[in-house]
Amino acid sequence: MALMMVTRNFEEIAIGETEEYQPQVQEKEIPKTHFDKIKILLTANILDDEFTFPNPFNLWSQETLTSRSFSVAVSSFISNLNKKNDNLLDEKEITPTKTISKTQVRFVKFMLLSYLIIVLLHAMIRGLDYENDSSLTLSAFHTFDLHSCALDAVVFFVVGRMHERPGIDSLSFILPVLLGGWFFSAMTEWSWARHNVSAHQIMCEWPTELFIFVFCGLSCIGFSVFKHVQYGWRDGILVSRFCEFGATFVVFVLPTANDPFYHFHHWFATWLVGMHLNQNYWWSRVSMALFWGVYLNGIAGYGRDSILGCKSAYYNSEQQKCLMLQEGDINSEHEWCFNPEVFNETETEAKTFFNETEQELIDEGILLLSYCEAGPAH
Fold it and tell me: Cα separation of 378 and 373, whole Å?
């Protein structure tokens, strides 16, 4: 009997020890390499993509918020306030906090970051005396271009699926944007890069450095296109992406592409293409950031000039019946004006226009501008 009791006690102790003692296996932390640390530094957000704050409407019930009667809303608010003071307000009736979604936060980040970089590039381009439009002040940008640029950014954000991609305010996005914004202006200071893309220039005047540069640039573009097609096919999104690109091409390019005034500005080209570099891989993110940087460079350096140039300006002035066209009150340094007689001529007859600033004849197709030496054209 005593032996049985002793045995039972040993069993209870063993069982108790077994239940209480559960050794914890500590996972060994893999030491981070320098590459891992750099990756963390580049991908870390400056600000969180999600914010939670106290709900300012926690005393307003849903019925109060939807009520059209001001007196009912006020009385309900006072009633809820009294209940809260007496600790009688049901916690289910209120929401103590509100959370701003990641999409909203990323959108605000993108808009503010783009604006700040435009201001920065505007100062940098003029401070380093890069090629720019000297008449484009920040005041002029706010007056004439800010609205259109904001719409560009909204389309870029939506089509580019930036609401699905973290790191808008990370160094991995900001640095390529700044690089694209600086590089496009810096090229204008390199003597070997000051050449046009024409058959005569390529065959006779392009230096070796320019050929090397173009080869490297086309190789990078080819690599990016190949990777987007490859991973788009692998992820099953290639067809939808082609449909999106086709839709934007039809809307933004096709209506004006055949116009003799059409000019494919670099801000427009990088905006149109960059929004489609929207796959969630590092090479796609870097490509998009570079293209967005070149877009911001065009806006900061030259402004958001219309792709139809002076034809668009003349059309708007004519539609608004501007006095400057009726009375010839054009106050500008070079006094370019529109010649309706030339405009009404056949669009198939090639003509030239004279640019007084550069003192050269440029064969650009139809002459829709003429220099007003004898006064304004009527």
Answer: 13
Residue tagged 């116009």 (tokens): 259
Distance of alpha carbon 149 from alpha carbon 145, whole angstroms = 6
Amino acid at 293: G
Question: Phi-psi region for residue 99, left (φ > 0), alpha (ψ -120 to 50) or beta?
Answer: beta
Tell me the residue type at 128: L
State whether residue 369 is helix, strand or coil.
strand
Quote the pTM value: 0.69
Residue 376, Cβ density class (10 Å: 0-12 exposed, 13-18 middle, ≥19 buried): middle
For residue 351, the Cα-to-chain-centroid distance in whole angstroms is 38
Two tokens, residue 354: 């004279």
Q: What residues pair up with 354 in beta bridges, in sequence order?
A: 361
CB 358 within 8 A of CB 373: no
Local structure of 235: helix, strand or coil: coil
Strands (E), 38-197: 51-54, 97-100
Q: Do residues 262 and 308 lie in contact, with contact meaning Cβ atoms separated by under 8 Å?
A: yes
pLDDT (tens place) for every residue of the chain, 378 residues total:
444 554 555 455 444 444 444 555 555 555 567 777 777 777 777 777 777 766 655 544 444 444 445 555 556 655 655 555 555 444 554 556 667 788 888 999 999 999 999 999 999 999 999 989 989 999 999 999 999 999 999 999 999 999 888 778 888 899 999 999 999 899 888 888 877 766 777 888 888 888 998 899 889 888 989 999 999 999 999 999 999 999 999 999 999 888 888 888 889 999 999 999 999 898 999 999 999 999 999 999 999 999 888 888 888 888 887 766 654 444 444 444 444 444 444 343 333 333 333 333 333 333 334 433 444 443
- Cβ–Cβ under 8 Å, residues 276 and 162: no
CA–CA separation, 275 and 277 (whole Å): 6
- Pairwise CA distance, residues 266 & 258, whole Å: 18
